[in-house]
Amino acid sequence: MTMTHYMELLAVNQPWNLIMYMVIPVALAEALVATEFFTVFLRGADAGGWRTWNKLIGIVLGFYFLGIFLNLLFTVVPTIEWRGIADVLAVGSYLSGVIPLFGITLLELGVIGKGKTADEKLKLHFILLTVFLVVAHVAMVFGMVDPMIMGWSPKAAGHMGHMMGN
Questions:
Q1: Is the pTM of this model over 0.70?
Q2: What domain count does the chain have?
């Protein structure tokens, strides 16, 4: 079985790559989802503490993922010898998570959405979070696929690829 570069990135340099590229961002994203639910459910004065945590997690997660994005974009992506469409979808979806996550950070910092009401900002925050969850799950699903199932052949590519993150 051949792995996508997404899965390979998580598998090499154990446990550090797994922690840095999966555990930390997923734990923060799940915490963001949880605080988002409580913020929406308890709207108003009762949501104060949850909203504060939600804002803090949104800012931290956005900057953290921006760091991951920049690191992978400049150190790993240029060296990838793509293993077909599954590989492109997995890596591309993972990296695209920076758009909604950093969008949340910019929203929380007041860089975007300045003229919006609190409800409009909450709706935008919810949409951005939902977009991130979708692209993250697309990355996970295609990341776990053997690229050969989707038509890639190591013989046609002339190599067996290389290990990411070494």
A1: yes
A2: 1
